[in-house]
């Protein structure tokens, strides 16, 4: 009897251990599955005032975003992403004035699924932010809070399918077929083609829609670490839509004075072809030089950005403090961006 009792006791321990191990493995798999889903985002707000003109009427440069005076809202950005072994999806939602300007009030900044077909090939289908330009919609991903003319008049987002190829450690290639830029619902049957060739952080970008919307744009975006604390970003673009368009270039030197503070300058020249109307002069072939000095101070997940901007156009595009027409406009803002 003692021998039988001991044998049963050992069996019970063995079965309990098996059940415990199985339960642990299931729990571990559930934790790993939960880790595949991630939530991130930003919220931002700012205060802005014009220095060379009255704040009445909220006079602002022709570039996108940060175009209100007084205390103003940027946007709330909520990003849900799921990453599987070879596939995944991203839902990127925006709420607020900055998001409305970027999406036309659609609230969906990005919404796409992807498939890593092989180690060097990735397919993405849905709505994704543009590959053209140095700047992006999210204020957390830009150094300057206000945006450039080059970014503002290029595409914001595309709806279609793209294929990314890692050709080597240094070279990459992207090819895309899309609706015309910033069009969600294709009611015309017109499409666009896109391409990007990358080499060690430098990118040559192409977009073409046969003058259906944007027309043709070629864009270079890149940057170089000149030292451990100095970075230089570069952007140049040419766009044409049946004789009307723009061209220009921008430089982005930045100096990190500490782990928490960086100061940077954006110097941009932007010129219109024909009566493009971006600068607001009402004169054909106008141009503008814009200099934006931005400081960036980070504490934990909060970034404070004071910014001084001067826009100087070739023709009268603004008004001064007396209400007289002026070629220039200066403004100051301070923005708060929280990332999570």
Automatic annotation (TrEMBL):
InterPro entries: BBP2. Keywords: Signal. The keyword Signal applies. The lineage of its organism: Bacteria, Pseudomonadati, Bacteroidota, Flavobacteriia, Flavobacteriales. This is OmpL-like beta-barrel porin-2. The keyword Signal applies. Residues 1-27 form the signal peptide. It comes from Cellulophaga algicola (strain DSM 14237 / IC166 / ACAM 630).
């Amino acid at each position: 009897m003692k021998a039988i009792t001991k044998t049963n006791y050992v069996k019970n321990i063995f079965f309990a251990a098996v059940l415990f191990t199985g339960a642990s493995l299931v729990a571990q798999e559930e934790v790993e599955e939960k880790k595949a889903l991630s939530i991130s985002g930003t919220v931002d707000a700012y205060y802005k005032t014009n220095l060379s003109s009255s704040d009445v009427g909220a006079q602002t440069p022709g570039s996108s975003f940060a175009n209100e005076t007084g205390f103003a809202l940027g946007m709330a950005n909520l990003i849900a992403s799921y990453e599987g072994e070879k596939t995944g999806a991203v839902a990127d939602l925006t709420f607020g004035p900055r998001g409305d300007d970027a999406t036309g009030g659609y609230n969906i900044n990005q919404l796409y699924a992807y498939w890593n077909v092989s180690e060097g090939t990735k397919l993405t289908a849905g709505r994704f932010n543009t590959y053209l330009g140095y700047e992006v919609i999210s204020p957390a991903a830009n150094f300057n809070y206000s945006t450039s003319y080059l970014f503002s008049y290029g595409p914001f987002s595309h709806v279609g399918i793209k294929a990314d190829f890692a050709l080597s450690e240094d070279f990459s290639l992207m090819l895309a077929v899309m609706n015309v830029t910033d069009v969600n619902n294709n009611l015309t049957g017109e499409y666009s083609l896109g391409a990007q060739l990358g080499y060690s952080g430098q990118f040559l970008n192409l977009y073409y829609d046969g003058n259906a919307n944007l027309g043709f744009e070629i864009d270079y975006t890149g940057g170089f670490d000149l030292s451990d604390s100095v970075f230089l970003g570069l952007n140049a673009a040419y766009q044409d839509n049946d004789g009307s368009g723009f061209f220009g270039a921008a430089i982005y030197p930045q100096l990190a004075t500490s782990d928490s503070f960086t100061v940077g300058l954006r110097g941009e020249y932007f010129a219109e072809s024909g009566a493009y109307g971006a600068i607001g002069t009402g004169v054909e072939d106008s141009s503008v030089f814009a200099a934006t000095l931005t400081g960036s101070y980070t504490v934990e997940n909060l970034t404070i950005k004071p910014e001084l901007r001067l826009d100087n156009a070739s023709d009268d595009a603004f008004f001064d403090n007396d209400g007289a027409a002026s070629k220039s406009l200066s403004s100051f803002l301070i923005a708060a961006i929280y990332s999570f």
